[in-house]
Amino acid sequence: MYVIVEIQGQQFKAEAGKMLYVHRLAAERGATVEFEKVLLVDNDGAVKVGTPTVEGAKVVCEVLSHLKGERIIVFKKKRRKGYRKRNGHRQCFSQVLIKDIVA
Length: 103
Description:
It contains no helices and 10 strands. It has strands at residues 2-7, 10-15, 19-23, 32-35, 38-43, 46-49, 58-68, 72-78, 83-89, 92-102. The strands form 3 sheets. It has a 4-stranded antiparallel sheet with strand order 2-1-5-6, with no helix packed on it. Strand 5 (38-43) and strand 6 form a beta hairpin. It is elongated. The mean pLDDT is 96.
């Protein structure tokens, strides 16, 4: 059984026991979080598509840790003008474990 769930504007395929990396959540490590924007439920071939969400379905997750992604270098340059700008960025993520799918 798997579901398609929307978490902070992004869609993820969620299965019980799997881990996901989502944009940083405002929850502490070890906290239980529920996501109720379930867009699709596939229960061994029986597919239920929501309009826009499936009624009564939710995903229960546990926040394992908060971490940062790899460094991304943003480099801008205009040739023959002497303009160069270098900037770095690291995205903040939360690692969540999917404990249960209620559908």
